[in-house]
Specification:
Helix 2 crosses helix 8, helix 3 packs across helix 10 and helix 8 packs across helix 12. This protein starts with a helix and ends in a 34-residue tail after the last helix. The radius of gyration is 22 Å and the shape is globular. It is mainly alpha-helical and 496 residues long. It has one domain: Amino acid/polyamine transporter I (Up-down Bundle). 54% of the residues are buried.
Length: 496
């Protein structure tokens, strides 16, 4: 169909015209959103959540679901109003117009991708060791496997990955199958009298924590399992009737994953004692083995988990390297980070940079006294909760911007609740491990130093200001126009 005709039809429906094909229907969009949320968190952190609150491991997942839901309402208003791929950074720029603040938001999102991928690599290593019968208690062995896995992710990233929504659907179904297996095993074990559901209502807080503090500490971990819905906003331009379909599918996707997580948590504590469940990074394998002790079906769980976390790691490292590339091409980071390999057409320096940061994180936390998966997963949640606080504020600020077409509008009270809740869960009073603040501070410190170096170089050698020229292209992997002298060769187009 002719693009101009289709764009006229979009205007008639009150939509913003786009050059992209609107090929994603409601069901495909729902699966895409569910796939974005599912992944490392529930496969590796369910036991750690239970160790904070005892048998009531479902409670932190419900709180995390509620926070994600109110924040999703804010994203829905913004994405139907400004359907562009740059997400939170673009919304922040439209609200405040301060380039350094926009950069910090973009760098925070990028950093959350690296910490999330690092979490996934450690979980992958633990599941691989468990699946092949290696010594999962050998921290050096698990560290080597995790680092080797990150190298593999970097190699795939360098080669270039052409992602498609249909491929994501296949990955989603595999991830979902593992969680449904846990739930079905729980139902079977309950019918055979092997489940103790009396544990589900027992709060058993760690140390001298109050019940409230224990739930908030556990929610800080559980929230890592709910993140991912914010990435789905990048698909709005390719959705059919996004103003009508996107809100319904986003809310349905968050609701479905929240329900699955609660059921998985209930089954987990009913089949495995909390003390045993909280040990190691493969809790769901223990659940399936306990529910079906006479069948070898538990042997496949580490491999399903490996598949789920590997997918999460690759997607997050792709996002992180492309964001670094996008910021470098807009001259707010050193230009070398924007170099593209002439053969593979991939941002090889950005890939090396993000992989090196991930290596440093994995090694540093592995050698610290903190547990790796909770420390890195908690840092991911901390970084994104900071971004979500800003997004919930931005949606209210941008109410003054009337765009003259129909879009989703969230009730005003929800962004207020979302901003307060997200901000609260970034505070030390929630019982976060201090190492999470250390990691977040180092990552953002790297960003500030790189910005400062770029600013100094731009002023000293080129006599120009450092600012984001095209904030709406940050996540698109497309170079922005620059102010080079006439006759200079054009920058390359979109990368792989």
């Amino acid at each position: 169909m002719d693009t101009a005709i289709e764009q006229d039809r979009e205007r008639a429906r009150g939509e913003e015209p786009t050059e992209l094909k609107r090929a994603i229907g409601p069901r495909l969009l729902l699966l895409f959103i569910v796939g974005d949320i599912l992944g490392t968190g529930v496969y590796s952190l369910t036991g750690r959540v239970a160790s904070e609150v005892g048998g009531a491991a479902w409670a932190p997942f419900i709180v995390a679901f509620a926070i994600a839901l109110v924040t999703a309402f804010s994203y829905l208003e913004l994405v139907t109003k400004y359907p562009r791929a740059a997400g939170a950074a673009l919304y922040t720029h439209k609200a405040f117009g301060i380039h350094f603040v926009t950069f910090l938001v973009a760098f925070t999102v990028m950093s959350s991708g690296i910490t999330s991928a690092s979490t996934a690599s450690r979980a992958f290593a633990a599941n691989l060791a468990d699946g092949f019968g290696l010594d999962a208690e050998n921290s050096n062995l698990v560290l080597v496997i995790a680092l080797a896995f990150m190298l593999l992710v970097a190699a795939v990233n360098f080669r270039g990955v052409g992602e498609s929504v249909k491929a994501n659907v296949v990955l989603t179904l595999v991830e979902l199958s593992g969680l449904l297996l846990v739930i079905l095993v729980g139902i079977y074990a309950a019918s055979a009298g092997r489940a103790d559901f009396s544990r589900v209502t027992m709060f058993d807080t760690a140390g001298d924590k109050t019940t409230f503090l224990a739930i908030t500490a556990a929610t800080s971990l559980a929230f890592f399992a709910m993140v991912g819905f914010e990435d789905a906003v990048n698909m709005a331009e390719e959705c059919q009737d996004p103003v009508h379909n996107f809100p319904k599918m986003m809310l349905a996707g968050i609701g479905l994953t929240g329900l699955i997580y609660v059921l998985v948590a209930i089954v987990a504590v009913a089949l495995v004692p909390v003390g045993e469940l909280g040990e190691g990074d493969t809790p769901l394998t223990k659940v399936v083995t306990a529910g079906l002790p006479d069948f070898p079906i538990g042997d496949i769980m580490p491999f399903i988990a490996m598949f789920a976390v590997a997918n999460s790691a690759l997607i997050n490292m792709l996002m992180a390297s492309r964001l670094i590339y996008g910021m470098a091409r807009q001259d707010v980071l050193p230009p070398a980070l924007g170099w593209v390999h002439p053969g593979r057409r991939t941002p090889w320096v950005a890939i090396i940079f993000t992989t090196a940061v991930a290596f440093g994180l994995i090694y540093y936390v592995s050698k610290s006294e903190s547990e790796v998966v909770p420390a890195l997963g908690g840092t991911t949640a901390l970084l994104l909760l900071g971004v979500f606080t800003i997004v919930n504020i931005v949606v209210l600020v941008l109410r003054r911007d009337e765009i003259g077409r129909k879009h989703f509008r969230t009730p005003t009270v929800l962004p207020v609740i979302g901003a307060l809740a997200c901000f609260y869960f970034t505070l030390p009073v929630t019982g976060r491990d201090p190492i999470q603040y250390t990691i977040a501070a180092w990552l953002l410190g790297i960003g500030v130093v790189l910005w400062a170096l770029t600013w100094a170089a731009n002023r000293a050698f080129f006599g120009k200001k450092t600012y984001l020229r095209e904030p709406d292209e940050l996540a698109a992997g497309t170079p922005a126009e620059d102010d080079r002298p006439a006759g200079s060769p054009p920058r390359r187009g979109p990368i792989n």
